[in-house]
Amino acid sequence: xxxGSGQAGKVRIIGGKWRGKKIPxxxxxxxxxxxRVRETMFNWLNMALPKSRCLDLFAGTGALGLEALSRGAQxxxxxxxxxxxAHALRTVSHEMYGEQCMVKHIPALQFLKQxxxxxxxxxxxxxxxxxxxxxQSLSVLLTGGWCHAGSILLFEHxxxxxxxxxxxxxxxxxxxxxxxxxxLITHIEELK
Length: 192
Hints:
By secondary structure, the protein is an alpha/beta fold. It has a single domain, classed as Vaccinia Virus protein VP39 (Rossmann fold), CATH 3.40.50.150. It has five helices and nine strands; from the N terminus they run ββαβαβαβαβαβββ. The chain has helices at 35-44, 63-70, 83-97, 108-111, 133-143, and strands at 10-12, 22-24, 53-56, 75-80, 101-105, 122-125, 152-158, 169-177, 180-187. The strands form two sheets. A seven-stranded mixed sheet has the order 5-4-3-6-7-9-8, covered by helices on one side. The chain has a two-stranded antiparallel sheet with strand order 1-2. Helix 2 (63-70) links the parallel strand 3 (53-56) and strand 4.
């Protein structure tokens, strides 16, 4: 959720229990996911979201993970490398969800070097646009045990970026809104 020009203000939860709740934008280089993009993403997730375990890997404001919790996710782990953003997210998430989430202040790829206690059902990937972190994350998520067959990844990148995926990943949706390309990738079982 980073890699734009610094912004001041708030982003709001657009659906579920906390609809309308405003989240502060704190930290440098934060680029919150636009409301229209989040609405489409969460429409795609409608049936998969209730009781899911989610990972918001480049959390920024935490808007994607907080939206997931508002709409019925059971758990979200937020990972954010910016200290100020992680602190603000810890405060907001504790106020809203208490025991349903955890905020980790650590770079995403360093976090992924750990072993997960169990795979995640839904993973949000919105790394800085001017990086190769999206491709690196896809590789580590697969080999590190962070996903299971059926796990869903929602991604964002600059619209001029081309993201190709190989099995067991399958890109099932992709759209463009302004300068953002976003979509859905599913972990499918390899054909035998």
